[in-house]
Amino acid sequence: MVKRMLKYEAEAVDRVFHAVADANRRAIIERLTRSPATVSELAALLGVTVAATVQHLRVLQDSELVSSEKVGRVRTCRIDPAGLHNAEAWLTRQRTAWELRLDRLGAVLGDEAKESGR
Amino acid sequence: MVKRMLKYEAEAVDRVFHAVADANRRAIIERLTRSPATVSELAALLGVTVAATVQHLRVLQDSELVSSEKVGRVRTCRIDPAGLHNAEAWLTRQRTAWELRLDRLGAVLGDEAKESGR
DNA sequence: AAGTTACTTAAGCCAACACTTGACTTTCTG
DNA sequence: CAGAAAGTCAAGTGTTGGCTTAAGTAACTT
């Protein structure tokens, strides 16, 4: 049961990271963070065809990062924060574990610690 | 100049998200979070060939998520937290912006707000 | 009604990916 | 020294990804 939950989570994490690994899809997210936009507007922003944009939007919607609603003939897209949770949780979980470990093993990884800015 | 910096950052973000979008690479990260491991150990964990594992490790090293050192004939891999910064910064930046916007536009997105758990 | 706009869907193209196998190189071990 | 162990490198294979063009459909506009 826990296993099953984790599997589902893994798939969600897969989808979100994959969605966000593409520069054009990140550009869409950044644009929608400012305000909702239509499909054509997003296509113009990316400099690709509307068809390509629709495909990106499908990926973003499947990972619950974007939602959209069609009224009349124009589809308006907006951010849907739901999808971010899993990915962010995973990142944070790893980073927290790393930092704990790094604190404890400071000496072992001391080489890096010497380079101040890193 | 700012533009150039952002471009570099975009490429780094690209690499990290792509690295982390693969379930096997995430499994490597999770394993290394507990302790360093050899290439063979990681291969056994994933159930793929050593060659495939080496390829994953190259991706992880290019995105500065993992570092490794070879002593004798065995290569020991460990976590390198450097690569996480850009990706995490991007995620946090977006999420923060979304939340601000969601607070302001609560009424517009009210449908979702009504569904308590989301 | 005819044309334009906004999107949708399907098909195909080419590059990138995740693997594999097989041929090495290097480093231990008996 | 012979052989096993640990990893490296190169080539090949099947799949997926991002993009295009082309052919729709539905909703405005004139």
From TrEMBL, chains A, B:
The keyword Nucleotidyltransferase does not apply. Gene3D superfamilies: Winged helix-like DNA-binding domain superfamily/Winged helix DNA-binding domain. One of its GO terms (molecular function) is DNA-binding transcription factor activity. It comes from Glycomyces harbinensis. It comes from the Bacteria. It holds the Pfam family HTH_20. Keywords: DNA-binding. Residues 5-101 form the HTH arsR-type domain. CDD domains: HTH_ARSR. InterPro entries: ArsR-like_HTH (IPR011991), HTH_ArsR_DNA-bd_dom (IPR001845), WH-like_DNA-bd_sf (IPR036388), WH_DNA-bd_sf (IPR036390). PROSITE patterns: HTH_ARSR_2 (PS50987). This is DNA-binding transcriptional regulator, ArsR family. SUPFAM superfamilies: Winged helix' DNA-binding domain. The keyword Transmembrane helix does not apply.
